Amino acid sequence: MTVLDLTLTRMFDAPRALVFEVWTEPEHLARWWGPTGFTTPSCEIDLVEGGRWRTRIHNATNGLRLRSSGVYQEIRRPEQLVFTFAWEIAGSRAPDMLVTVTFADFDGRTEMTFHQTPFDSIAQQNDHIDGWIQCFADLAAYLTERVAAVTREERR
Q1: Per-residue 3-state assignment (H helix, E strand, C coil) for the chain
Q2: What pLDDT, in 10s, does the model give residues 19-36?
Q3: How many Å apart are CA 89 and CA 110, to the nearest integer?
Q4: With 70 as the cut, is the pLDDT of residue 1 above it?
């Protein structure tokens, strides 16, 4: 049986510590989490190994509301996050998937590698690829805002 997974790599014009921070602090994660058109009205993070995270996303255009949650398996600040991920649909929880996100420093820029497995089907895998690509575009835009804000603060 073939295990379906996905790996996405993205370079951000932001320092690794900042990229890690926006992945691990609720007020930041809520600004970019979810595919295009979604907002994140609820985000909870207990950033310890064995700690839980949970988000609720909402699409105002079609009214769709989704929850996702998981448990942090490994936290190596600012190099890596490993956590479980599952959708909560109609009161039941889908099977857990494992997500590993690594952050590599490249002279003040950050290469993020995102890996998620296993998927039940190619359709599910494709849905996640599309969703994460949209999330990471929003993440890039948010990081640009954060870098500009930090730069403004440093100039004061």
Answers
A1: CCCEEEEEEEEECCCHHHHHHHHHCHHHHCCCCCCCCEEEEEEEECCCCCCEEEEEEEECCCCCEEEEEEEEEEEECCCEEEEEEEEEECCEECCCEEEEEEEEEECCEEEEEEEEEEECCHHHHHHHHHHHHHHHHHHHHHHHHHHHHHHHHHHC
A2: 999 999 999 999 999 999
A3: 34
A4: no
CATH tag for 4-150 (out of 3.30.720.120, 3.40.30.10, 3.40.50.9100, 3.30.530.20): 3.30.530.20
Q: What is the pLDDT of residue 155?
A: 75
Q: Please state the pTM of the whole predicted model.
A: 0.93
Domain regions of the chain by residue span: 4-150
